[in-house]
Amino acid sequence: MVKKLIPHICIILSVMLLTFYVVDKFNPGMNFVGNNFFKMLLVLGGIAAIITAGFLIAANRK
User: What is the mean pLDDT of residues 17-21?
Assistant: First the structure.
């Protein structure tokens, strides 16, 4: 059960991080994240986590 739940949690958290990045891009006054380097790391980490979770979900369905 937990093995099937973790990839979904990973996708949800990654989408949240990407949403925070987009909101911060349009409204820098909210200052969700600090500098450009950290922002890019968040985007790359979020995309990597979504891809990894997608592969895990596909493997769990087999």
Answer: 87
Provide the whole-model pTM.
Answer: 0.71
- Report the alpha-carbon distance of residue 17 to residue 20 in Å, rounded: 5
Q: What percent of the chain has pLDDT over 90?
A: 5
**27 three-state secondary structure:** coil
Burial of 22 (0-12, 13-18, 19+ CB in 10 A): exposed
**Residue 54: pLDDT above 80?**
yes
Q: Say if residue 57 is exposed, middle or buried (CB neighbours under 10 Å; 0-12, 13-18, 19+).
A: middle
Q: What is the residue extent of each domain of the chain?
A: 2-61
d(CA 41, CA 55): 21
